[in-house]
Amino acid sequence: MDVGTTQNLLFFWSAATNFLPIVGAVVADSYLGRFLTIGLGSIFSFLGTVVLWLTAMIPKVRPPPCNQSGQACKSTTTSQYMLLVFSFLLMSIGAGGIRSSSLAFGANQLDKGDNNPSKHTVLESFFAWYYTSSIASVLIALTAIVYLQDRLGWKIGFGVPAILMFLSALFYFLASPFYIKQKVRSNLFASFIRVIVVAFKNRKLHYPNQNSDYHHKNACIIKRPEDVKLNGVAANPWNLCTVEQVEELKAFIRVMPLCSTGIVISINMSQSSFPLLQAQSMDRHLTKGFEIPAGSFGMFLDPLLTLTSLRK
């Protein structure tokens, strides 16, 4: 493929990889739960790396090598291109499941309740080690894995990540009995819509009093006693919401400006092919026998992008 086509493909792959964790978060919190979402994400990531590895192992699924006689290189066929896109799509779906839930799922294992005095210290330490290990993995990928690809070829260079992803998924499921698995409470976005609808219905109602806990939460105002069942649950969730539902929506709205800022930064920095093209034209030899792979130059930028994606 030409440089422009390659750049577009990598950019859309990066965009999908950074967007699908939003979808994965909704699926995890509303339907599948975090454990199963991470597990499915690991399986999809493994399948994606295997398909990508097959493009290096099977000669017919990639164009033939360019010869040195000056003739034009043969372009990728439609089926070969779609197979490559399919491998990227599988890995993006896998990233959507893993990135959206791994940090929160890990925090669930350490959360001993609100009354634990060391809860915040333990969680802060876990977050720090989580981000540190994530950045370390990117640096290893851009140095050791890229060096294998550059020196030993794509068959080994793609095979090693596939094996590592398989081991990752295997160990994750083997440790399943030891995990704390929180149950799915409700559809989060459906809850957001209910709060908006009920708040609109009650927009003209007066608050019980200025000191009430429901002040500025008109979605929580009880209009009639029959709106609440004997167990304290709303008889019709489209007429009455809980304070927790309102606070969840408010927290979501407060986070939106931060997410939008991160999107703008990512667009400006997601130029993964540009450093590679520049590095290929440089003298990268540290010694006569050792040359830094051009793909490793991304280590100066990709950890920052990874940290931005993880925080989103």
Automatic annotation (TrEMBL):
Pfam families registered for this protein in UniProt: PTR2
The entry's keywords: Membrane, Transmembrane, Transmembrane helix
A GO cellular-component term linked to this record: membrane
This protein's record includes keyword Hydrolase: no
Transmembrane segments: 9-28, 34-54, 81-107, 127-148, 160-180
Membrane topology (UniProt): Multi-pass membrane protein
Domain of life: Eukaryota
Keyword Coiled coil (UniProt): no
GO biological process, one term: oligopeptide transport
Cellular localization per UniProt: Membrane
GO molecular function: transmembrane transporter activity
Family per record: Belongs to the major facilitator superfamily. Proton-dependent oligopeptide transporter (POT/PTR) (TC 2.A.17) family.
Protein's UniProt name: Nitrate transporter
